């Protein structure tokens, strides 16, 4: 049986981890996978997470199964963090193994309820989106998103392409901090997109993996909240990997907004999908998140540290844009300072990306996506000089 298997292509983001590890050069710089790193290169366990873990270790009496949909307190806390108050009667939800688990469950839910529904993806998008959709054999289409000339959003192209969406199609939208580009819609542009998609009868499917990494915890939820208030049905796949720094704990949630009358049936289908795919979702990370969100002191400390993380990335952006101005004697990389989130797509060619890796030991994804958090005060000028030498 297994002899029929063909080798799988390597995941382009994850492949960089091994390539970087195996590079013996001193001074190599990792701007690949989307993991937050402090100035020393460490991905720290957040203070509130450590404190919650300590409390949990002391108080936890059992590790018996949690609920099939996760602990209700986790789901309620996450719905509150993402959407604010007022959604209890519309929000069906399941805890999932990370944001990827939520995306997978959402796609399976779409496939179950509307086989043949088109899933629209931004071009470009996180490569795992099309990969999972292809694996599930679902139809997909792309809408223009990135303007290669300005490195901003191609808003006219986006509107034109989304103008072709049909009623019942699912449209995957990055709620904030677009991955891989770092280019984001303004709230006024979101309003236009919402009006267009509502008129079309589309089902928004929001991927919210970086809440708190862009303009702030509340600000980064603004587009999702706008969408939630306008559409009868919305799918939201959210991750706690980045904003709680609990990557390996696999902590995510899928929220399906529906009518109060349909909620029980939708919830039952979400539970069913969890049961088919992995039975019970992981609990450790979800429990830490719940403890943090429910406790005033832990929550305040977590928010303060998340804000430090966000502001650190923002100042790295500003420093990099300034260094690139000097190094290239031009303003053509100023977009780095206006992008938000972990990533910026620099707009370099694949050959330039390869030269940066081979000659300079600087690792970024092949589409020239950099993880801003991979930088520090020392490496910013090194990167700027290297970019200038390949693209100056
Ligand atoms: C990324 O885009 O680098 C992260 O979301 C990590 C991943 O799983 O790809």
UniProtKB/TrEMBL annotation:
Keywords: Aminotransferase, Coiled coil, Pyridoxal phosphate, Transferase. Residues 28-387 form the Aminotransferase class I/classII large domain. Residues 299-326 form a coiled coil. GO terms for biological process: L-phenylalanine biosynthetic process from chorismate via phenylpyruvate. Gene3D superfamilies: Aspartate Aminotransferase, domain 1 (3.90.1150.10), Type I PLP-dependent aspartate aminotransferase-like (Major domain) (3.40.640.10). SUPFAM superfamilies: PLP-dependent transferases. Its cofactor is pyridoxal 5'-phosphate. InterPro entries: Aminotransferase_I/II_large (IPR004839), Asp_trans (IPR000796), PyrdxlP-dep_Trfase (IPR015424), PyrdxlP-dep_Trfase_major (IPR015421), PyrdxlP-dep_Trfase_small (IPR015422). Pfam families: Aminotran_1_2. GO terms for molecular function: identical protein binding; L-aspartate:2-oxoglutarate aminotransferase activity; L-tyrosine-2-oxoglutarate transaminase activity; pyridoxal phosphate binding. It comes from the Bacteria. One of its GO terms (cellular component) is cytosol. Homodimer. Belongs to the class-I pyridoxal-phosphate-dependent aminotransferase family. NCBIfam families: PRK09257.1. This is Aspartate/tyrosine/aromatic aminotransferase.
């Amino acid at each position: 049986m297994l002899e029929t298997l063909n080798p799988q292509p390597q995941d382009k983001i994850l492949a960089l981890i091994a390539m970087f590890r195996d590079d013996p050069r001193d001074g190599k710089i990792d701007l690949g996978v989307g993991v937050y790193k402090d100035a020393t290169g460490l991905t720290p366990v957040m203070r509130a997470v450590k404190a919650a873990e300590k409390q949990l270790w002391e108080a936890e009496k059992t590790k018996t199964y949690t609920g099939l949909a996760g602990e209700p307190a986790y789901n309620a806390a996450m719905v509150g963090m993402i959407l604010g108050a007022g959604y209890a009667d519309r929000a069906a939800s399941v805890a999932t193994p990370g944001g990827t688990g939520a995306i997978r469950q959402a796609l399976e839910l779409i496939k179950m309820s509307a086989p043949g529904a088109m899933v629209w993806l931004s071009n470009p998008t996180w490569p795992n989106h099309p990969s999972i959709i292809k694996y599930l054999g679902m139809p997909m289409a792309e809408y223009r998103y990135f303007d290669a000339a300005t490195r901003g959003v191609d808003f006219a192209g986006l509107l034109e392409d989304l103008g072709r969406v049909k009623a019942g199609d699912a449209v995957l939208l990055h709620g904030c901090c677009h991955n891989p580009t770092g280019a984001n819609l303004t709230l006024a542009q979101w309003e236009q997109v919402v009006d267009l998609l509502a008129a079309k009868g589309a089902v928004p499917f929001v991927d919210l993996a970086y809440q708190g990494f862009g303009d702030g915890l509340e600000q980064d939820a603004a587009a999702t909240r706008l969408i939630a208030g306008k559409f009868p049905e919305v799918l939201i796949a959210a991750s706690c990997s980045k904003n709680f720094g609990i990557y390996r704990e696999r902590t995510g949630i899928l929220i399906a907004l529906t009518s109060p009358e349909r909620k029980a049936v939708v919830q039952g289908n979400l539970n069913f999908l969890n049961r088919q795919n992995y039975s019970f979702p992981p609990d450790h990370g979800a429990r830490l998140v719940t403890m943090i969100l429910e406790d005033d002191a832990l929550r305040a400390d977590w928010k303060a540290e998340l804000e430090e993380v966000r502001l650190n990335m923002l100042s790295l952006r500003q420093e990099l844009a300034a260094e690139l101005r000097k190094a290239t004697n031009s303003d053509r990389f100023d977009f780095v300072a206006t992008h938000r989130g972990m990533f910026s797509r620099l707009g370099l060619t694949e050959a330039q990306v390869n030269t940066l890796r081979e000659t300079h030991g600087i690792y970024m994804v092949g589409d020239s996506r950099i993880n801003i958090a991979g930088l520090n005060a020392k490496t910013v000028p090194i990167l700027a000089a290297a970019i200038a030498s390949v693209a100056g």
